[in-house]
Amino acid sequence: MHTLLPSCRPTTTLPRRGAALIIAVICLLFAGALSLSVVRLVVTQQRQLEREEWATQAALLAEGGIARAIQQLNNSDAYEGETWQPEVPGEGAQPARVELSVEHLDLEPLGPRIRIEAVADYPDAANHRARVRRSVVIPVTDGTDALSTSL
To answer: CA-to-CA distance for 102 and 61, rounded, in angstroms?
Structure first.
């Protein structure tokens, strides 16, 4: 007859199960941290792209503002500048503002000149905007207030 004796061998499956669980948790934490880093990178790149888009739009608005001021000066000698709020076309376009100022200069050796400055904000918001400043000095032709169109 055979008698069954209890085995004296230690069971190693329990510590292995615990080690596998710890490894799985560490892998999940690592994957989560990696995913969070990728999301942060994408958000940062999106914000940078938005800022570059705003700066480009503000530069175009400033150039357009200078052209507008030249046209206004050719129409009226009394034009001294304005706050121009153009409608920006396109999907997702935001309000814009361009401050235009005109200064008449009398430079002796060069003759009369007009200095036009444009400060464009896009979008027109107190925070989170791009601001571009452009200025140009244009000679007055024939002693009149008609501006030469060649810059």
So the answer is: 17
